[in-house]
Amino acid sequence: xxxxxxxxxxxxxxxxxxxxxxxxxxxxxxxxxxxxxxxxxxxxxxxxxxxxxxxxxxxxxxxxxxxxxxxxxxxxxxxxxxxxxxxxxxxxxxxxxxxxxxxxxxxxxxxxxxxxxxxxxxxxxxxxxxxxxxxxxxxxxxxxxxxxxxxxxxxxxxxxxxxxxxxxxxxxxxxxxxxxxxxxxxxxxxxxxxxxxxxxxxxxxxxxxxxxxxxxxxxxxxxxxxxxxxxxxxxxxxxxxxxxxxxxxxxxxxxxxxxxxxxxxxxxxxxxxxxxxxxxxxxxxxxxxxxxxxxxxxxxxxxxxxxxxxxxxxxxxxxxxxxxxxxxxxxxxxxxxxxxxxxxxxxxxxxxxxxxxxxxxxxxxxxxxxxxxxxxxxxxxxxxxxxxxxxxxxxxxxxxxxxxxxxxxxxxxxxxxxxxxxxxxxxxxxxxxxxxxxxxxxxxxxxxxxxxxxxxxxxxxxxxxxxxxxxxxxxxxxxxxxxxxxxxxxxxxxxxxxxxxxxxxxxxxxxxxxxxxxxxxxxxxxxxxxxxxxxxxxxxxxxxxxxxxxxxxxxxxxxxxxxxxxxxxxxxxxxxxxxxxxxxxxxxxxxxxxxxxxxxxxxxxxxxxxxxxxxxxxxxxxxxxxxxxxxxxxxxxxxxxxxxxxxxxxxxxxxxxxxxxxxxxxxxxxxxxxxxxxxxxxxxxxxxxxxxxxxxxxxxxxxxxxxxxxxx
Amino acid sequence: xxxxxxxxxxxxxxxxxxxxxxxxxxxxxxxxxxxxxxxxxxxxxxxxxxxxxxxxxxxxxxxxxxxxxxxxxxxxxxxxxxxxxxxxxxxxxxxxxxxxxxxxxxxxxxxxxxxxxxxxxxxxxxxxxxxxxxxxxxxxxxxxxxxxxxxxxxxxxxxxxxxxx
Lengths: 712, 165
Known about the structure:
Largest interface: A-B, 34 and 29 residues
Strand order of the largest sheet of chain B: 8-1-2-11-10-9
Radius of gyration of chain A: 33 Å
Shape of chain A: globular
Strand content of chain B: 35-45%
Low-confidence stretches of chain A: 146-171, 262-309, 702-712
Number of strands of chain A: 22
Shape of chain B: globular
Strand order of the largest sheet of chain A: 14-18-19-17-16-15
Low-confidence stretches of chain B: 160-165
Distance between the termini of chain B: 44 Å
Structural class of chain B: mainly beta
Structural class of chain A: alpha+beta
Oligomer: heterodimer
Strand content of chain A: 15-25%
Helix content of chain B: under 10%
Order of helices and strands of chain B: HEEEEEHEEEEEEH
Distance between the termini of chain A: 71 Å
Radius of gyration of chain B: 16 Å
Largest sheet of chain A: 6 strands, mixed
């Protein structure tokens, strides 16, 4: 039987999504706070709030272990919130560790739920709650650090807040209002309705306290609410009319009244007075809560109050099908507008309309592609966490610097990137960065540095993971490869680049000892595979003793490119328009230059371009070989330029990029200068040229077949 | 199956997994009959316009557009080291699926669907299982014909899979 409340099943996705978002926020706060070695009041409130929300929604889903555990954390923060001064150096460390453990636990539970909602069994929280409780005891001054045993601490009543010191009643502030809401008779689930009302109000006001507290988790609250109404205290600086409107518009509200501050204060002063007319247990809690709330509230800025979000979450498959359809529309538009049947017809009006259609489809394409674009910040943030954990466990001191996190990439890419990046960071931490002692000995700063950067270059996104660690030792790599039997050619034939590339071979790991993080030799080849899956490449650069860089290059959008169709004999290829800077025909007078290798070059406006004959590098027979008969296309990628020689131009077309079938992976077609293929209007297939790779191969950087091809 | 060039062979579409396993699609390369387990066969089509992919072995003929999907073609004749033969109206492409990978096999002519209960299977003599005949699993006889039963995996497996640098 499932642990999860069956009636809540439809909410499961939302629950996971929201909780994950909260956990990410938490991590962000924690990392900042840990660096500063202290928690600001704002941060304490944020954490408190996040834990509270997780607790509430977990309870709603029937995940009692999760809500229990978060409840403990909330308790702990309740104390901290009231007595920030108790958070001394030692406690801060413990609290941070507890929080990290708690978020880890929650994350892994979420993962398990997502994987198998039916078979999900909650993981044990005993040890974690034990730690939290002993810390609560310490914070409350009931136990002394080091003496507190989890068993002893467990005896502490979980309702820790009630034991919190409660000074004089809160001053009645003008902005603080208390409203008592009565629900319609027999409307059922009053506690949930109260919770929903809270949520609604939360968007506009800052809720300080409610009676009964936590209506959503407390089944006894129903009776309480039915009998006495739901009392909600909040801070709202504006006119109350707006808030009353919101309450009125909520469903099943029978009546509501504003409780005057005097009355509220009276309630607090005499918590058990019959006049207050509120159930006792709730009231005691309220008494404890009240004084704390305004104090916390004072530190909050309006900006941090949850604003109305204009974001919606959409099922990714819907977006995927939208993108697919859009691709087809773009292609269909091309097919109609440049239909061969229309050739040479006087179609002024048609052309006008076609241009209009083209403009609109272009816009549509931009918007749709934009939907899928997300910044890399989130992915980068996760890496901070990994570095932190590994620093702790490996006794290293490393700083992760992220640059260009705001770079936007296709959602599918961020999904694929997370794992490889994690592997690479781990790899850099484990194998690259030395221990502080080793670093000092090598004359480096004690703190290691890993730079994670992202930037757009042309139609690609380039992500680099650079460390200033010990670098790769070419000879050691080759030794190891030899021992593992993965050397393919004599050692001397390996270029540095190829030798470094060995670490991405299956079954290769340079670390002698297998650690928790790396050394099993499965990491880096998985990285390569994952990146290649989305049409990207990984290269390694390294200077021994100075550091290593992994450079990932991934096409920015996977779906559609503006392409120039060219023909060589009977084959067609597509060159992305973004790579083309000029197309021209060579005049017979032009003089060709030859370098010492016999490479043909041509001068265009004072610049010298090497000529890449497609028919030659791809061994295509029956192609035009006379340079003056064919077409010259000047292409550029990054800093390098070249002149591609082809037979003819076929035309410009937007094409949907399809990756090569996995069958071709073994032939390394990527290294041959193809980034994918596409189906053209007439149903034929055209291969898309990867100009960057072609030029790289020309410069002799290619790792595969192209490098050995003759350009001369 | 009314497409010109595609023989009128009915694939037992509603057959169970067990039945499929014991059924082969037979085809000709030259005069030899080969059998392919029907579990791997998706459909039979005629030869389509092929886009060549440079830098691949000769037996990889290129890619075709199969209803919007890109499917690589392997010429079985060339894969088996036999001389190239011009494609004619009998030439067929058998679309196979192996481990989620779709590959089209170009054969001289598709022959028939044969159930193995009706044929007499004998294992290969041991000496021939090495190297040259690693594409085959067994030999069976139906009537007067000998069928070389092929192993889909070894045919589609790369010859030099370890050569990735």
